[in-house]
């Protein structure tokens, strides 16, 4: 699949996607990266400090900078977007109507919500778009090397999905850190607690990903009746503590995404 892909912003998330695409066999020559911060790009990838001029529209344009940078960036990006362009946006809290108002010519606009595991081809990827069948198929093909793509039936779900799939790694990292902090509090050397907590989560996630059983059932299988694990699970379950904490965490992040959406709408 040879395409001209123009990517604006190659920081944490854009960089992870580029890594995933190159690892997945996409030709480096397909990519033009625009990023004022980046000093080098992977071999074969064209790197520009500002939007290309006089090159016309690209087949695929990816917006990968911070949502707040859109109003200033839009004018320079617009000439690269034409009636043949599939516009992909990973900007959290910027809806399709807002993107359409900045880029009215785009053939199709698809919001993409990945996470940093795209670099390993292990990201959940939520998609929602103003896109016909062909644009959806093209988006699916582009996402295939990055992880598991799922189309949302309603754009309103994007705020919650951003919290779950996009922000989610941060919550898991905090969980790992909290486990290690707890173990250190109870007497283990901190560096050893860090190593054990991380390798435990890595193995548990791999087992769950390869299992036919749901995570709740897998937890039941670890807990021997009258044994050690059940006492810990009872602490997590008391007053629905863990579920309440996760629900509040997602609610807060979801509501911030919705607030950012309103702020971006106000700046069109
Ligand atoms: N980080 C994550 O895990 C996830 C992030 N996202 C989304 O990804 C986007 C990027 O986030 P993240 O990678 O963390 O941010 P970063 O700040 O790491 O990367 C953004 C990059 O874009 C550059 N940039 C700024 N303005 C422009 C421009 N006009 N044209 C081209 N490049 C530009 C920035 O340069 P400079 O530093 O000079 O401004 C920076 O290098 C956000 O919209 C976020 O909502 C989505 C899912 C997960
Ligand atoms: O924190 C953020 O706004 C972005 C969206 C998901 C992950 N990072």
TrEMBL record:
Recorded source organism is Novosphingobium hassiacum
Entry EC number(s): 1.5.1.2
Q: Which PROSITE patterns match?
A: P5CR
Gene3D superfamilies for this protein: NAD(P)-binding Rossmann-like Domain (3.40.50.720), ProC C-terminal domain-like (1.10.3730.10)
Question: What keywords tag this UniProt record?
Answer: Amino-acid biosynthesis, Cytoplasm, NADP, Oxidoreductase, Proline biosynthesis
UniProt GO BP: L-proline biosynthetic process
Nucleotide-binding found in the keyword field? no
Q: Where is the Pyrroline-5-carboxylate reductase dimerisation domain?
A: 155-260
Residue ranges of every copy of the Pyrroline-5-carboxylate reductase catalytic N-terminal domain listed in the record:
8-93
Q: Which SUPFAM superfamilies match?
A: 6-phosphogluconate dehydrogenase C-terminal domain-like, NAD(P)-binding Rossmann-fold domains
Q: What is this protein called?
A: Pyrroline-5-carboxylate reductase
């Amino acid at each position: 699949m040879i395409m001209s892909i123009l990517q604006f912003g190659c920081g944490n998330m854009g960089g992870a996607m580029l890594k995933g695409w190159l690892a997945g066999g996409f030709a480096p020559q397909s990519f033009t990266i625009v990023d004022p911060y980046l000093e080098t790009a992977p071999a074969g990838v064209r790197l520009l400090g500002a939007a290309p001029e006089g090159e016309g529209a690209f087949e695929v344009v990816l917006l990968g900078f911070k949502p707040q940078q859109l109003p200033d960036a839009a004018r320079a990006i617009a000439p690269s977007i034409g009636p043949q362009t599939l516009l992909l946006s990973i900007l959290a809290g910027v809806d399709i109507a807002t993107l359409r108002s900045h880029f009215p010519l785009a053939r199709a606009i698809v919001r993409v919500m990945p996470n940093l595991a795209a670099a390993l081809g292990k990201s959940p990827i939520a998609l929602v778009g103003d896109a016909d069948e062909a644009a959806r198929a093209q988006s699916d093909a582009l996402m295939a090397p990055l992880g598991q793509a799922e189309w949302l039936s309603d754009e309103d779900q994007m705020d919650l999905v951003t919290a779950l799939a996009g922000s989610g790694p941060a919550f898991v990292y905090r969980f790992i850190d909290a486990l290690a902090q707890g173990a250190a509090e109870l007497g283990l050397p901190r560096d050893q607690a860090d190593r054990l907590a991380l390798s435990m989560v890595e193995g548990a996630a791999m087992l769950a990903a390869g299992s036919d059983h749901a995570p709740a059932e897998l937890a039941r299988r670890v807990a021997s009746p009258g044994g050690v694990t059940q006492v810990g699970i009872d602490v997590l379950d008391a007053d629905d503590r863990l579920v309440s904490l996760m629900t509040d965490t997602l609610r807060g992040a979801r509501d911030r995404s919705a607030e950012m959406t309103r702020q971006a709408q106000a700046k069109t």
